[in-house]
C-alpha cells in the first residue's frame, strides 16, 4: 500500500484507522493510533536518525566478521550519517526547538560514546575531523575522514577509489601534455621563434639578444604552465 504525502490523503487514512479501531469486530481494538501532523522535511529527519540508530547494531555485528566485503559500504554509511547529524545539529537544542528531538537525543547519546567511536575508527580506518556544519565540541558526534595526509584529501577527497581514478586520469593526461610540448617546440611559430633567437644569439652575442631570449622564455614558460593547468583542471573535473 502506497500513500502519497498529500495532506488530504493522509487525513483520510487516519480517519479510516480511527473508524476501524472502534469497530466491535476490529482485531485492533486494543491498539491506539496517534496522528502525527508533521511536515515531510521533519518526518525525513526523524526517519534518518531513527533508522541509523537502530541498524547500527547490525553493522557492529557485521564488523566482527573477517573479510566482510560490505565493510567499506558500512563505513561510508556511518560517515554520511555523522555528517548529516552535524548538518542539523544547531537546529535541535531542546525538546521545544525541534520536532525530532527524541531521535536526535538517542542518536547523540549512542554515537558520542568513546567505545562506539573507537570501534568505528579501527574498523573503518577513520579519524575525527572538523565539521563544515554543526558543533566540533568534544561531547558531540564527530565528523569523520580517512586517516592520512589531510592536504591530499583536501585536493582529491578521502575516497580511495576516487583518488586512484584521479591519479590514473592525470597519468593519461600527462602524456598528451608532453606531446603538446614537443609539438609546440618543433612545429609551431613559438618553437621557430625560439630557434631563431638562439641562432641570433650565437651570431651576435649582444646583451640585448640575451635579454630578448630570457624574456621570451619567461613568456613561453607562462604559456605552457597555463596550458598544463587548464588540461589538468579539465581532466580532474572529468572524473
Automatic annotation (TrEMBL):
Keywords: Membrane, Transmembrane, Transmembrane helix
Membrane-spanning intervals of the chain: 166-188
Superkingdom assignment: Eukaryota
One Pfam family in the UniProt entry: Plasmodium_Vir
InterPro entries: Plasmodium_Vir
Protein name: VIR protein
Organism lineage: Eukaryota, Sar, Alveolata, Apicomplexa, Aconoidasida
